[in-house]
Amino acid sequence: METKNIMIVGVGGQGSLLASKLLGQLLMAQGYDVKVSEVHGMSQRGGSVVTYVRYGDRVFSPVIDKGCADFIVSFEELEAARWLEYLRPDGQIVTSTQQIDPMPVVIGAASYPEHLIDKMKQAGAKVDALDCLSLAREAGSSKAVNIVLMGRLSHYFDLPEEAWMTALEAVVPPKFLELNKKAFALGRNA
Amino acid sequence: MTKRLMLGNAAAARGLWEAGCAVVSSYPGTPSTEITEEAAKFDEIYCEWAPNEKVAMETAFGASLAGKRSFCGMKHVGLNVAADPLFTVSYTGVNAGMVIAVADDPGMHSSQNEQDSRHYAEAAKIPMLEPSDSAESLAFAKAAFDLSEEFDTPVLLKMCTRVAHSQSLVETGERVTPPARPYEKNIGKYVMMPGNAIRRHPFVEERTRRLAALAETSPLNRVEEGSDRSVGIVTSSTCYQYVKEVCGDRYPVLKLGMIWPMPDEKLKAFAASVGRLVVVEELDPFIENHCRVLGLSPAGKELFSPLGEFSQNIVAEKLGLPVPKGAQLGETVPGRPPVMCAGCPHRGLFYTLKNNKCTVLGDIGCYTLGAVPPLATIEMTLCMGASISGLHGFNKALGRESESRTVCVIGDSTFMHSGMTGLANVAYNQSNSTVIILDNSITGMTGHQQNPTTGYNIKGDPAGKIDLESLCKAMGFRRVRVVDPYDLAACDAAVKEELAAEEPSVIISRRPCALLKYVKHKAPLRVNTDKCVGCKSCMRIGCPAISIKEGKARVDATLCVGCGVCGQLCRLNAFESTGKEA
Predict the structure, then answer these.
(1) Most CB atoms within 10 A, among B28, B124, B131, B310?
(2) Which of B178, B119, B111 is nearest to B383 (CA)?
(3) A4-189 CATH choice from 3.40.140.10, 3.40.800.10, 3.40.920.10, 3.30.70.20
């Protein structure tokens, strides 16, 4: 199988680590070779962050390059747009509609671009935009945006829901499992 | 054997454990930190955070001398700090195996430079292994211990960001405790005074010759055949993965797992077996230059940049292969640089320094973000500890003119690492310097590691605690004061008074990092829109929780921790508590 590429993008501190852990667990259990690459340190402090998840028969590079991502999963609209160039021509974006002003916008040196979802569609991307923050709150915690997004992403995978649940159980502490299952279902069925 | 998805650093730690390593001493530094954090999870390994890399390496050497396999890990610039013991432990050699991990950061995700640590292997004449994924990180860590004992040498394990911070599948094994190597007194080997060192140097040269011979036959260096011999590629580390991603089995590849000493005959034979020889390596032309010494003429840096990280598309482009293209948004979007967190205790202090128009010499840590707008206060950052020494030199050069307006800022962990010696210079050579220690009670930037001022060790258990006030006083500082950086009036008074004082002083700006789990936050604030006139005074502190929406300030309740610094800037008292504790 040709190597498949999933990028998880967002703002430092939004919880992409758990999302990539879930995907790694899920894909490894399906028997794939898997690589996950993340960056630690300074960029985590509220900066733009990206995690790469790759799987297939044999994966070499740990990173995803421009024009190669099958999926871009984004916690934030502007971040989805920032990484658009990494999407392959027939790739799918799954994004939360949350908007977080970056510091250049906060201090008035730039403005938050308008109509980003339309612009990404005009550029040829398939975009599935969802208010994941509201769904996460509905599930019981604003921190569950990551699992809402995973639920939405699962929609595009030809895998039984059971496989996702098994992976979820492996990466989430028992006391948060019900909340996360609810968040997953809200994303998957939205 | 089941396979596990492991971070390169975690796999290296697993390798230490399987190899029977017993003592680990390190200083945290991205991207090396998790090796030691993961090693600390094994009960069989004594693990600690040392105050700096030099101390860590010397501690590891002492453990090796005593007969236990030992390890120290650090980032590339950390090896500069530890370079002093490094060059001489090459001469003494080891008793039990000793492995030193050094993690480079091409692309500078979290570093102040992009140095290539491979040069240290050649300069210190110490063999260096370079894994390309997690499985090799584990295997090479184990191999490094065997090499260390067989050749009586410390061994360098060279990581880079993409190997250290990528997860890939690993088959784990069990721990094998190596045979005991009791300590034996050997003054000629371990006391490096001239008369002894002069006898050890020939040993080092002979050892290098034996290691070079090993490199010719070791499975660490392997040729992978290709169907098209018009091109042959020499590579290592993560670049090997990019090459295989792009070329598959098309071109033959000489993959170097031991990057120093290099297998000269293997390189020459490989070059002779292919048409065009290409070297793919990040940063400096280390392999390439060695090939040139051997009389080979590879294409290397004429194709590939010495700057930053590579990727599969870069390798494809330089080899003349097709490069995928992605969609274009048609406009540039605003950047999202890292920022000080909401509630960061550094913010109030930096605002005070900006307000007092201070010249601020900075150091290495989260607080380096004090150099970015809107605070844009730090004017110099060089290396660990340079803020204090730099301030002393600055003040010696300019005298009273600068002493009354120049300060330095240094974090608690960085102060323990390399700040104390600079402070000793201020005390000894008497510059009227104002040193500010930003004590957030943790090593923040690298992800919350304990240090000698926190009172806890790497496992979170109670440990020795160095008292900063007593330390500064013992060095001879009479003016040592503590301020709360959330209290802007107190910060302002402290900075004004200490700059005006006719003697050197230390201000300790003390409040724990807002991200620490034990820190209790106040309820988030909100803006009373009847009071707010949109003057943007509160925007001067660059808090990511505050923005201007429809002409008025707005607080993001999911980010705000109720620190109240913004409220002290508001003339109209528009910031109010939501009353809901987080």
Answers:
(1) B131
(2) B111
(3) 3.40.920.10
